[in-house]
Every structure is written in structure tokens, then in C-alpha cells.
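Q: Got a minute? One more chain.
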Amino acid sequence: MEFFTRRPLLALLLLSLAMALAFQGSRGLWDPDEGRYSNVALEMLHTGDLITLYRHHDSYHFTKPPVTTWAMAASMQLLGKNEWAVRLPMALAFVLTILLVFQLGKMFVPSRPWLPALIYLSAPFPYMAANTINTDSLLAAAEALAVFCYVRARFGGGSSRWIDGMWAAFGLVFLTKGPPGLLPLLAIVAFQLLHRDGAVRLLRPLGLLAFALIGLGWYIAVVSLHPGLLQYFLGHEVVARVASDELDRHPQWYGAFQIYLPTLVFGLLPWLPMALWKLRGSGRPRWSTAEPMLRFLWLWLAIPLVIFCLARSRLPLYVLPLVAPASLLMARALKSISFDGVWRKLLLALWLLLMVGIKAWAAYPPQKPFVNTGNPKSIAYRVTAVANDAIRGLQYNTIRNLADQLRPMIPGQPQEIIFVEDKTRYALHLYLDAEVEKVSFREWPKAISDADFDKTLAQSLRDNHGGRVYFFKRPVEGFFLTEVAHSGHQPVLLGVIADPKQRADQDRMVYTLRGDFPDH
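A: Always. Here it is, folded:
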């Protein structure tokens, strides 16, 4: 570990960049989240509108604030429309978080400031998250920046200008994911109330102004442009996520244990069991005698975690920003452990290679499943079965595979890929450079954001443009052909996408309309 002790910042930067960028663009987009996020960014490039977020040019998509969309759109504008560009912001956010955790380590673990960053870098949870398109990797970086500014002011003897920087960073946090991103601010306020020593003053006019301009400016703009959007933000994006089971994201009383416990236990390997083992004989730490910096770390970790557990909407990535305080706490527990032994260095190197290997395996899964023989009740049989299920999922769940099947069927450049009463594969926008639309046979009330359908099939057939490709399950083919006949168009069958599980009723039919493509 000599490189880490001599030039820790350079070592962490090079290692984190190498790991984050390895195979970052090799894997096809996964359905549904990666396709949905990338589609909104592509719509931004298509419309040129940086304020209003679109799922399709007829439908809004305000389920998340715009920072992640802006980052992906800028990356694709610079590097092209590909998986590498669309995932690059998450990789860079991962690297930035590591560098911020290193800076925090200088204050919380001064004897080994690089150790918390190394823990964050080598923990599977944040590393694997950075290889997917999500808002939480950028949120983790923005939250770490906000806390770093506060810590510099409170524990580092820095200027009160750092508090202004904290508020500006929390403005960026709010613009990344809205109210849930402000949970570390609750920890800061709680710590300030517990330690009324006047070391720093949180309410500073310049800082609050920065928060208002950065964090609230976009919200004010879109709410003024789109009447009814404020009710959507408050009702659907706040109340429904916190107090109801409307979103059906593990709302049961045991949902927090089901989602967050395995996420944090397995996502913090190998460091969490090492830290717990190191602390086994030290006795229970007492809050009354704990030093202020340790109290702050526990508040930063515990307050958001408790609120996430109490909320009725729970997903693993919600707790990704908590890996930063967890890494600092584990580093404090492991600060006396020796890394000088050859075996420990080798094990760490093998662990990092294993994580890179998992990314490579996800990008290039085996083409044939493993042979599964023996006793079906044996552990080896069950492990092989799980591995084969994962291989099939990697082979068939990437939309790149679907695009490869569709491309030779389509007789020209499509303008729209239209899903009729079917699960919508938004990632096709990236692969086929065509808008993706979802239509229904009957008209439904349309929500202001994230509507069930963009329009009806009849409305789509009346659109005066070509390049339409219709995609639906075989059982609804008769309804589709009847609707096309009523519209005066002539349907043209382009092909059939067979279901990989050999279920004929799940085959997808691919149609266009006579005249939508020249010479076809």
C-alpha cells in the first residue's frame, strides 16, 4: 500500500477511473430503468428543451428532477449516442464521491485518510451501481459534497463560506432527486442542536440564496409552465412515496429488512464483517462519551436510514448515499489493521479484479448455459441453476438484442417505434434512433406526467408522418388489424420476434403501414 501512503490522491484517482470506466459501455441497456432514463435524455436532445422533460414529444416525464438527464444529454452530445456516453456520468460521479470521501477521511481518519475512500471504491454496492443508469450515483456525489463543505466549516476550522458552499451543494442535491436528497441536512441540523457551541451558523443569507437559485429555480419554471404539476410533485412524488403503497415498492412492514439489510450487508463486503470483527471486543460505544465527530457520522448514517425504513416506498439504490458515512465509520474501526502483508495486498487485488470481472461477465455472458447434472437438491445443482437463470436474463433482457432483431426487418429509418398495449422498451430510442411511443386501443384519462399511454392507436394512425413501426403481442393482432382497416391504412407485416421461452402467445408482431417507408 506504499503508493496509497505516498500519493493517496493520485492512487485513488487512477484506480477509481480504471475500475469505473472498465466495460462501462460494453453491456447493452437493461430494461426498464436504463431505457427509461436514457430515453428522456434523448428526448431532450431531440426537442432541444432543457426545462420540460419528455418521455415522448406528446407526454411529459417529471418523475425525477433534471440533473441526471442534463448530464446524460451533455455526455451523448459530446461523445455520441451510445452506452458508453449514457453511463459516463454515473462513472464520473462514482470517482468524484471517492475523492470527496478521501477528503473527509483526512478529518475523520487522519492516520489513514485513504482507507475510507478505498473502502468505498471496493464495496460492490456503489461500484456496481455506477455501471447502471440511475440518479442515485450522482445524488451520492452531490450529498458527499454538501457534507464535505459542512465538515470543513465545523471540524476543519474553515471559513464560514464553506456553509454557503454547503447550501449551494444541497441545491444541487435537491435538483438531482428532490426532498429525499436533503436527509443529510436533517443530520446536520440534529448535530447542531446537540452541540450548541456556536462553532458555525447554518442560516446565512448568501447560502440560502444559492440554495434557492440552484435548487428551486427549475421547479418554479416548470410549475409555472405546466399547471397542475405542483400537485403532481407534492402528491405523487412526495406523499405517495412516503406514506402510501401506491407505487408498490415493498411497502410491507418487513420491506425495509427485505431490501436494505441484504443491500448493505452484501453491498459492503468484505469490509463490514471485518469492521464488526474488529469491534467485537471493544464493548458497546456510549453516546454520552462519544467524540463529536463520531456522533456526527452516526447521525449522518442513522437518520436517513431510519426515514428510508419508515417510508412505504423502498428500493436498494435509495440507500446508496449512505455508503459514504458507512465507509468512514468502518475505516475508523479498521484504522489499526495492517495492509503490509503480501497476502492481504494480493487478496485486495483479487477482490478488485473480481468486481471488474463481474462487469465483464455481465457485458459478455456465456452463450451457452452450464451443464446441470446431479442431485436436484444439492447445493451445486441449485447454484448452477441460479447461474443459468442469470445468463438467460443477461442474454435476453438487454434491449440491444431486441434492436438487433428488429433492425433487419425495418425497411428504412424508423421515426417511431409504437408499442400497442405492450411493455414499452424505451432503450430502442438509443439503438434505432427513433422515438418510442406507447398506445392503447381505448382512450384513458392522461396524467400530467408518467401517463399510462401517450395516445390511442386510432390517434397514432391519424398522425400524418411516416416511419411508423408497430410492436405488440400476437393475441392482439386481430384488434390491431381491425383498427388499421377502419383507419383506411393497409398493414404490412415486417416480421415476428419469437419468445425465447417458446410461448407462441408471447411472440411479438412487427408491423408498419403501406406507404410509411419509401418503396415498401
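A: The first strand starts at residue 54 and ends at 56.
Q: Perfect, thanks.
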